[in-house]
């Protein structure tokens, strides 16, 4: 028997919005410690990793480890039927081939059950090595989203350069070039600040296409963290308050000669 | 009188590359195996041209595209030759004979098992996928032929991507057994 | 001479929004007692009935009975030109082939006249028998609209089942099944409550397509009432405060064997 | 030696049913008269096949569809035969010979006066209209033929509509004289 | 060296929104006194004239007169990357073939540079004679926009008639006729009033297509002024507070026999 | 016996007018020079028919449209004759032989230098541009031919535009030297 109840159901809606454009289908790994999902997008350029801790749920029970393969667009359609203040419960029997989503209105007067078929997905699991990144930047997630969107108008790639002074985003295309500089903030009031933890300066180039997928997670957190090292995938991480996090890994674009 | 053999420092190879385009303009890309040269990169379907004589090549392409990729014979017959594209890999001078086939429907199209998978991609999806420079050249040849590669676009890509190559994530992380 | 003046002109805009997708053309029957409209949609599965009482208007005069056939999409285009706080007056001469809509801004500084050709429509009038329904449910109109919209994602039909405990909506399709239960509310504070008046339990199936047309009337009233009896059309009724009501009748889908 | 008559408890009848599809894919449905069998239901145009010999049927369909429904002769000539669909009404074993004609334009298409009206409907509009099970079978045959009736869809309709039939409102309320 | 700095950068965004649908490309004439732009739309029916005074900028320097030809849709794409509260600076070297737009966030923590290629445009300059108009109407810009939009649903042309009592807008088409009258306001509280300065009554007909382009300037000013004389182009003027104005000239439609 | 010359108070002229329509339905309009009759108005491409004999007209149109307006020969060959439209200017009785050519692509299409410019316009853009009554008649003829000029539309334009002509702004303001 698996059961996970989340009073703040809108968080689960947001998690799905953050991954459903990147992944068509994915497996949710349910264990005693919580729920995990890891999958590459279909072109194998990026990797998504979602982690929801058991303690983050208002009720959590997982008698046996369970892998639930789901069509994420169907799951998203179902979650769209939940109101933002609904309590959401996911339930499955131990050897079930279906999962049930239950939505309860706060006053308990409306209760909805949605039952969905599970799928057998053959997905590989990648090991992500512990890495000491050369540079970790924390910044407002809305600012990062805006920058990715703005620069996508200029070219297919965004170049990110990080130094002690700040972080720079660069794009070029047929209408001209664009250059955005964010200075490290001196006053460090948590959510709003730009904070740079730098071992050595890094400059890397990434495809706009994927960055624009990642920023769908913006509603989950006011802050985003970017971790970079030379010639290594970028990590874009959003914390889900009290519940877990979602991490996106993106392979860089590397010059023919650098590689 | 002994016939003098051709000395070729670079090996020369010719392979057919087929752009399968479906009704809505998306093209079939297949993903190479995880090991070997160009591991995990996406490419247009390749047809080996092992026949000696060029005369047989056309026939080979028509036959193989049907057999290996499930294209209908009627569609296969309507292929158009686009151009020869040459790309030099370390010791190989590779010539791609590029063909284009519009398939009436995606349904029925398949690919050999050695590929990791296949996907119908738009031009943009293809350009932001992990692919080789050679395949980008092939696309350019197709677009030049079709007059699609407007000045603007080519200017853009040159300004924008000074020969940067999209890596795949699996080049960095390796598969592990599930806990 | 016919003249009907409505200070709260937005009500007439809302009435038109509620019927214009279902009916292309319709006749407004103007009499001393008020204005009525009755028409079937083009596939004859549903029937709309609008009733606007003479007393509901701020000025009402109808010297002779008048049938005004109108193209509802043209009428809707004209009403869209009225601001929400405009006073709307409909006017027609006794044997006229045009109708005039006059919009006055509250401060009287802007006055607009729109004249539209009338049409001769050959529409039949259906007699609706007085029926004692097995079950009448009153519920918030926004909740009903949301349920219809949500379940339309799951299948072409919605099954409505009403019992003493509450009302259940059910749909099934290729992504799974959906089941929404509303409990009868105990605290009966008028607008917000779910109130069930039940003689006997009823279960009926209806096409989503039409229900989704009916919920266009939601802005007219905070409450909607559903009346059902076995093997008889559903009645969906919205009250237009102080002015009248709009009723939709929808023929059920019936199993080959039940009929 | 008297020839023995065929005994048929069920009467057998064959009627042609023509799917007229216009450019945007919508199909012509006509609404039956208010009285009689299947009153007020929507159906695809029917052409009675009264000729004895099957050889003449094709000609009848071509001629009638032009005459009764205003289809252009050039369009009528391009009809394709889809399938025979059989449906059993109480005492009749009805066979529908289903044809499909793509008409270049809706304009000019008409229908006999005995029908209450006609309408170009999408697949979805048709399915949510009041129609007979037989006509739904006809649509299914067309879609099966065209490979459109994807597994998904058929699964859906079976799960969703366990043979529920949409009634019309006029089956419940009757016309009255206007006051 | 040319440099123009505008603390209220959103004004420049609005100016561009007001002209970019009418003009594909245009030249900005920069001089000591300020920046000007004049151009006809591609079908030569209307003329746009923008005037931004040097004093209106927070910093303004123009060492030598400069003509900067720009692709307005590219310029618009760049300005869309500026936040509404950003400070915008335009910069160009004396003989440069590029222009730079710099956006600074109010807290100076984000600085963006966008560089765009200039174009050599061969545009003619029209002399606009000083005219004493028979009739000048000031009215709320939002009201004018609404009237143009509403009447576009009725026909391709709008007829504007101005008398002592007020201004009338008329359109006719296949769904009927429309007639909007605005009375001159008695209380003359600046922004909201309809004020008519009339030498003689005027009636002129204009194409809706162009009027609907002009009303894109509505966000620039709460008031619009319409100047008309018989058989002469209409002038639609929006004042840009403290900075300048934008004027649209529109050739009338004239009866074959009147001309 | 002297042959009596035809007396024509009105001079008669015939000119070919070609509607070039591109894939998305827009039509090429060119803008007349600033001086002379109909100054600065937009018109469909004209081809002078100076040949005496009508037999040669077809050939002239085909040749000139290729030469002057850069239409591909294959496109030019596929022209259809629409109608003769007559318009009376003060002393000229002008007959327009209206042809229509669908061009596969706007690219390559050009116009003689004497025109101020050219533009691909939609029907609506054309109607709201400065153009002559004669050209509007030509468009009407094309639409009548194509059955597009629905009753509605024609009713509309008659109600809406009782022969009002859009002026150009340059008819009011004159070019000045830049300061």
UniProtKB/TrEMBL annotation, chains A, C, E:
GO CC, alphabetical: PCNA complex
Domain Proliferating cell nuclear antigen PCNA C-terminal per the UniProt entry, residue ranges: 127-253
Matches recorded under Gene3D superfamilies: DNA Polymerase III, subunit A, domain 2
Family annotation (PROSITE patterns): PCNA_1, PCNA_2
Protein name: DNA sliding clamp PCNA
Family from the record: Belongs to the PCNA family.
Highest taxon of the lineage: Eukaryota
Self-association and partners: Homotrimer. Forms a complex with activator 1 heteropentamer in the presence of ATP.
Keywords per UniProt: DNA replication, DNA-binding, Nucleus
A single BP term in Gene Ontology: translesion synthesis
SUPFAM superfamilies per record: DNA clamp (SSF55979)
DNA-binding recorded as keyword: yes
Compartment list: Nucleus
Keyword Membrane: no
Family annotation (InterPro entries): DNA_clamp_sf (IPR046938), Pr_cel_nuc_antig (IPR000730), Pr_cel_nuc_antig_C (IPR022649), Pr_cel_nuc_antig_CS (IPR022659), Pr_cel_nuc_antig_N (IPR022648)
Span of domain Proliferating cell nuclear antigen PCNA N-terminal: 1-125
Job description of the protein: This protein is an auxiliary protein of DNA polymerase delta and is involved in the control of eukaryotic DNA replication by increasing the polymerase's processivity during elongation of the leading strand.
GO terms for MF: DNA binding; DNA polymerase processivity factor activity
PANTHER family: PROLIFERATING CELL NUCLEAR ANTIGEN (PTHR11352:SF0)
């Amino acid at each position: 028997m698996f059961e996970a109840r989340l009073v703040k159901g809108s968080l689960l809606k947001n998690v799905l919005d953050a991954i459903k454009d990147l992944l068509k289908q994915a497996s949710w790994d349910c264990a005693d410690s919580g729920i995990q999902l890891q999958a590459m997008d279909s072109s194998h350029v990026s990797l998504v990793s979602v982690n929801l801790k058991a303690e983050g749920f208002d009720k959590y029970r997982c008698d046996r480890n369970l892998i639930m393969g789901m069509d994420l667009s169907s799951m998203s359609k179902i979650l769209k039927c939940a109101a933002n203040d609904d309590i959401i419960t996911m339930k499955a029997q131990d050897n079930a081939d279906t999962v049930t989503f239950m939505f309860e209105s706060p006053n308990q007067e409306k209760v909805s059950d949605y039952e969905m078929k599970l799928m057998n997905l053959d997905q590989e699991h990648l090991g992500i090595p512990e890495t000491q990144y050369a540079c970790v930047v924390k910044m407002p997630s809305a600012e990062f989203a805006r920058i990715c969107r703005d620069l996508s108008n200029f070219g297919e790639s965004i170049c990110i350069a990080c130094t002690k002074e700040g972080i720079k985003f660069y794009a070029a295309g047929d209408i001209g070039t664009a250059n955005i500089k964010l200075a490290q903030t001196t006053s460090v009031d948590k959510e709003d600040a730009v904070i740079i933890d730098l071992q050595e300066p890094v400059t890397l180039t990434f495809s706009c296409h994927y960055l624009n997928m990642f920023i769908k997670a913006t509603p989950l957190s006011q802050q985003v963290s970017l971790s970079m090292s030379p010639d290594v995938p970028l990590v874009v991480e959003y914390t889900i308050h009290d519940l877990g996090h979602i991490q996106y890994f993106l392979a860089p674009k590397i010059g023919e000669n650098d590689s | 009188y002994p016939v003098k053999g051709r000395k070729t420092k670079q090996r020369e190879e010719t392979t057919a590359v087929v752009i399968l385009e479906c009704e809505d303009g998306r093209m079939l890309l297949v993903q190479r195996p995880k090991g070997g040269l160009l591991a995990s990169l996406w490419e247009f379907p390749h047809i080996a041209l092992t026949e000696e004589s060029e005369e047989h090549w056309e026939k080979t392409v028509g036959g193989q595209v049907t057999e290996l990729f499930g294209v209908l014979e009627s569609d296969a017959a309507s292929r158009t030759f686009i151009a020869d594209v040459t790309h030099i890999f370390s010791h190989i001078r590779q010539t791609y004979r590029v063909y284009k086939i519009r398939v009436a429907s995606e349904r029925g199209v398949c690919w050999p098992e050695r590929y990791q998978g296949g996907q119908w991609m738009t031009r943009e999806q293809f350009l932001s996928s992990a692919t080789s420079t050679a395949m980008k050249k092939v696309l350019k040849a197709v677009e030049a032929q079709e007059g699609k590669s407007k000045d603007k676009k080519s200017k853009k890509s040159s300004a924008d991507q000074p020969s940067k190559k999209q890596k795949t994530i699996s080049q960095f992380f390796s598969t592990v057994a599930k806990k």
